[in-house]
Amino acid sequence: MYLVILGRQPALGLAELEAVFGSERVFDAGGGLAFVEAEEFDVERFGGVKKAGRVVLEVEGRERKVVEKIIYDTVLAQVGTAEGKVTLGLSSYMRDFGARDLQKIGLTVRKEVKRRGGSLRLIPNEEAELSTATSHHSKLGLSPKKIEMMVARVDGKIIVARSVGAQNISSYAARDQKRPARDMYVGMLPPKLAKVIVNLACEGREGVRVLDPFCGTGVVLQEAVLMGYGVVGADLSEKMIDYSRRNLEWLEEVKRRKFDWKLAVGDAMKVRWDSVDVVACETYLGQPFSAVPEHRKMVEVAGGCKHVISGFLKNLAKQTKPGTRVCVAVPMWKRNDGSFYRLNLLDSAEKLGYNAVEFKNVKRADLVYYRENQIVGRELLVLVRR
User: Fold this and answer.
1) Is 364 helix (H, G, I), strand (E, B) or coil?
2) pLDDT level of residue 63 (50, 70, 90 thresholds)
3) CA 359 and chain centroid, separation
4) Which among 154, 80, 153, 93 has a CA at the least distance from the CA of 125?
5) Which is the most buried residue in 190, 200, 217, 315, by most CB within 10 A?
6) Angle at 37 between CA 205 and CA 207, to 5 degrees
7) How confident is the model over 135-185, as pLDDT tens digits?
8) Which residues contact 383 (CB under 8 A, 6 or more apart)?
C-alpha cells in the first residue's frame, strides 16, 4: 500500500491514479492524500502526484505521547537499516503535528543514532511538509541512505510511510524552459498537465500509439515518448509542426536515444489518420486574454472553439473503433464573479458516439486545471468511443 501526496489540484491526480491502477485500487483519503494498492509506485509516471511512500505502519493512536512514540520508534527503525551517514527528512500531513513536533522527533532520533555510533543529517523543517523541491534536491527516497518519512492521520489511524521519491521538478523545468522552439501564445501547456492527459488516455497500457491532432510545440508528444509511447502529431500550422520536430529532435539529443514519432500538417476537422489507438491533446483554446473579456466577446470566442472541437470529434468518430479512449483539454473562461464559462461539450459528444468516463473518487466537473491569475483554464474531457 502506498500513501500518495497529490498535487495542487487533487482531482486531476486522483483521476490519473484511477486511470492507471483502476478505481478499486485507489482510495481518496481527503486533504490531498490518497492510498494506492500496488506492488510498485513510480512517482515519475504521474503528473498530478507530488510524492509517494510505501506504508510501513498503520496503527490506532490518538494521545499525543502515544503518537510521538509511534512515530519515533518507526522512524528510528527505518533509519537503523541504513549503514554510514544517513540524510533524514520528515513530513507531516496531520494538522495537530507540525514542524516543531517533527524537529523534536528528528533531533531525538539523531541523538540516538549518534549514541549507537552512526551519523545522521537532519533536514530542518520550516513547515510541517518538506517541499517537493527540498525532497527532490535532497534525493530523498531514492537510496537507502536518503530517507523521508511521512506521517498522516486517516480515519483515526496513524499512517507512517517511507518515501519512494518526489516529483522531479528540475526535469519538468528543463523540458518546459530549455526546449528550443517555444511560442508565448501556443504550447504553454504545462508538462505536468500533459502527463496527466496522457495517463488519462492511455490508462497505463503498453504498446499503444498516442495521437495529438493539435500538437502545437509538442508538449504532449514529449511527455508521451518519455513514458514509452509512440506518437503521431498533427497541426494545422506548418510552423507548429516545425516547432514540434525541433523539440522532439532536441529531446532525443538530450536523452541520447531515438523515440518513435511521426508528424504531419493537417486540419483536425478533416484529416485522416492511418490508425488511432488513443487520443491525448489540448485542443484549440481561442485567443488569449490578459483581462476578463465582456460576456459577448467570451461567447463569441467560445463559439469558435466549440465549432473546431465538435468538428474534430465528429471527424475522429468516423475513424475510431469502439473502446477508443480520448482525453482532450478544452478551454474554459473565468468570469468576473470567479465562476467559469464552460463549453458544455458532453451532450454533443454523446450524440457523436462518445460516452463520458466516470471516476469513483472524482466528479467530472472537477477535472479542471487553472491558476488564480489565468483567464483561460482547461477542462479535461475523458471520453470513450461507443
Assistant:
1) helix
2) confident
3) 16
4) 93
5) 200
6) 10
7) 999 999 999 999 999 999 998 899 999 999 999 999 999 898 899 998 877
8) 313, 325, 326, 327, 328, 349, 354, 355, 356, 357
